Amino acid sequence: MIGYIKKTIAKIWAKNHVKKSYQHKQNAAEDQEKLLLELVNKANKTLFGRERNFESIQSIQDFQRQVPISDYEDLRPYIERIKKGQAHILYPDTPTYFAKTSGTTSGAKYIPLTSEGMDDQVKAAQSALFHYIAQKNNADFVNGKMIFLQGSPALEDLFGIKVGRLSGIVAHHIPQYLQKNRLPSWETNTIEDWETKLDAIIQETEHENMTLISGIPPWLIMYFEKLRDKHGKSIKEIFPRLQIIVTGGVNYEPYREKMNELLGKPVDVIQTFPASEGFFAFQDDCTQEGLQLLTHHGIFYEFVPLEEIGKENPRRYTLSEIELYKDYALIITTNSGLWAYSIGDVVQFISKNPYRILVTGRTKHFTSAFGEHVIGHEAETSMKNTLKAFPEVMVREYHLAPQVNPNEGLPYHEWLIEFDTAPENVLAFEEQLDAEMCAKNIYYKDLREGNILRRLKITILKSNSFIDFAKSTGKLGGQNKLPRLANDRSIANELEKFKLNH
């Protein structure tokens, strides 16, 4: 009876929520300008606001003239002041959290997150589930157990500001009505070693009624494989009531085939686009490609054509100005104090009503040693199309890097691939993949036809190479993601140590 009541309430909430959000979809472009001016007005007395003369900003055009695009290094001096306990620096509210991310050559990033910003992150995650419930008219999963593969919820303290990984911070904001259903335990979540943690998660979950599982695809695959190897069954046989996979962090498509194989039977997938800087989009219809851009969650968006990234004054498009099927670098201004901030992601709009996007790559993850500027989406689509021609082949993971100075012959693109099932004829697979790359990237095609580059080369890696590489760099588990594309050989040279010797 209690289960029936929970499901009924969830369905009512979901329908009401989706009805309200429909209005936001209709007024998305207009709401964006209002939001920007509200944020500017609120922050006009902050240090950043005074330096950029926020009081004189009356329009988007004023904002774009007075506030240049920034990255973390531009904001670092302000963030260092906040870390020392100073107030009214980037935003009138002192951040409640710093979401700590690894990555830059100059050390960890500390991304400010205000209580407003955190509330909007939580609302966005809830909205994704409400849209699913309303679309399916089904809320059965609320009566089962849910697992979130995430970082440790243990937080440090820095002048009263809590510091931790975003996924660990989010663990403190799971709605009360879901707390009893949530796994793993606090103790398991705080285990730092990923493999030890995964074993503990399996012990806690393997005999439970799991209905929702959330995490980034590579780590979901690790979890599912360990379960399958232990029980000798598909995931749907182990968890027959599993209804939803919620995923984000990386594009799901390259992992879909492997996930389907492990699951054994269909499970609905909700793709999301969250980051430490904000929750930007989610799949509002799990039967359609694309993620709905969230325009009413404290984030103002600008879009810079990919070819203009790096220019001194790139053209900055607003939502009402974007074109479909064009790659844009995503620039955000948030209610946590990020101003015209480049998060490094590349998106492409596939719909304007509502605004739906694909995440097509990273501004810093590309291969362009010869001017070809291959981005993630092009490499992933080329691989996907190649696998259609070789249905027996299964790819676990790959990394693409240029080989500029080979010992002999012309330069080439090297694909370092870990296969679950390798092609019998690697040469034929190379030729197909090369042809697909030529079809996806005209500059690559010109370089190949002009004999600047020779055909790409595949280097086959041993089983578990990417996991072993992640271990060796201390980046196994949680939300860590290995770039699939690089413009140098720093990762490729390390991966070559795992080469399969024929």
At a glance:
The protein has two domains: 1-363, ANL, N-terminal domain (Rossmann fold); 366-497.
Sequence-ordered SSE layout with sheet pairings:
Elements: H1 2-26, H2 28-42, H3 47-51, H4 60-66, H5 72-83, E1 97-104, E2 107-113, H6 115-136, E3 145-148, E4 156-158, E5 161-164, H7 166-170, H8 176-179, E6 182-183, H9 186-189, H10 194-205, E7 210-214, H11 217-231, H12 235-238, E8 244-247, H13 253-263, E9 268-275, E10 278-282, E11 291-293, E12 299-305, E13 327-334, E14 341-352, E15 355-362, E16 366-367, E17 374-375, H14 376-389, E18 394-403, E19 412-421, H15 426-440, H16 442-449, E20 457-461, H17 465-472, H18 490-495
Parallel strand pairs: 1-5, 3-6, 3-7, 7-8, 8-9, 19-20
Antiparallel strand pairs: 1-2, 4-5, 9-10, 10-11, 11-15, 12-13, 13-14, 14-15, 16-17, 18-19
Helix pairs in contact: 1-6, 11-13, 14-15, 15-16
